Request: fold
Amino acid sequence: MQRVGGLAIAVLIVARGACAQDAPVPDPATDVNPPASRNLWFVRAGYSPARVLTASQLVSGEDVARPLTFELGRQTDGTRDWHRVYNYPSYGVGFYVGRFDHERELGHPFATYGFFSWPFPVSDRVQVTADVGLGVSWNWTEFDAKTNPTNTALGSEVAYHVDGDLSLRFLATERASIYAGLNVTHWSNGATRQPNLGLAVVGPKVGVRYNFAPQIVPTRASAGDRPRFEPAWEFVAGGAGGGKNAAAATDSHIDVVDRWRDFGAFNITTGLQRHFYQFGKVATGADVSYDGATGARVDIIDARRVESRAPVDERFALGLYGGYEHVIVRVSILFQFGYTVWRGFDDAEVPRFYQRYGSRFHFSDHFWGTFAVRSIRVRKANCLEFGLGYRARWR
Reply:
């Protein structure tokens, strides 16, 4: 899971380079609504009295949480095209302090993450803001069959951290503003350790922001100030892999804890995408997947424990998918829904429908990296995917 740590800075790629190559660069434009100072940095703090959501039967307290967030960010100023496309957003890094009533079972988790804040001006002093954050959390009190058997939400001390806010921001002065809105935060280890029922909190959130120097918040950029957008086709191809922890099947009396095993998994994907509007793409494609847990069993035969799996060639499968990708400069959030049309080993307990939720970030016009969770039954993580790929684009 240490590899997930790099995700905390993935969102910050927007701080470098020009706007995503997905839109052509227009004729040079003058700065729109320049800030009062070239010091664009700020600090932000938030508090959320939240409700805990999990299928785990936690018993050490109420289903409530009182997390705190502390963030360091930078306001965009319109000097790049993508600043104007996204209504002068801000971005930065944050630190999360988890405080749960279920302290004995969940522990005292912390998280670090990168965030992107997308504003939608309502008036000169009021904005609706949509925030997304992605990072890594640690210091969870993980499941233990003897000392912590009721925490079936997280079987590991480390988990990925995803959060989203929808808030109303009031600009009190050129330095200070306040926020109020709704927050949702989710943690999971992506089935790298069992059990992994997952954990989330949802609730109101309030916050304050202080700018290190006076800043004039720009109004929404006019159509003439934004770069022109032209729809385009894309062909993508890539590979991804990761580990998973799953319970081997059995016909013997063996506790599930004693049947958890580690396996490898990887996927090769190709797809055709249509970038049909500034912030979105639709896609269709195919996945060739390998799942090391295919046909895994643990049985007791002649008083001996015997483990087996499907032959290597039967661990492959072919799936077809469709999906949507939401573009945030060089980072995108993807949702894909697929169906396994062929698999070498047909296990009735494994659904043919699968899903993929994750992010993709473009290093250049052609090369991208990805982090995603492949799941079944919509919400049950099957494995984590870390990968690289190539894109060709034409109009």
Notes: The chain has two helices and 20 strands. The helical segments are 81-85, 103-106. The chain has a mean pLDDT of 90. The two ends are 39 Å apart (CA to CA).
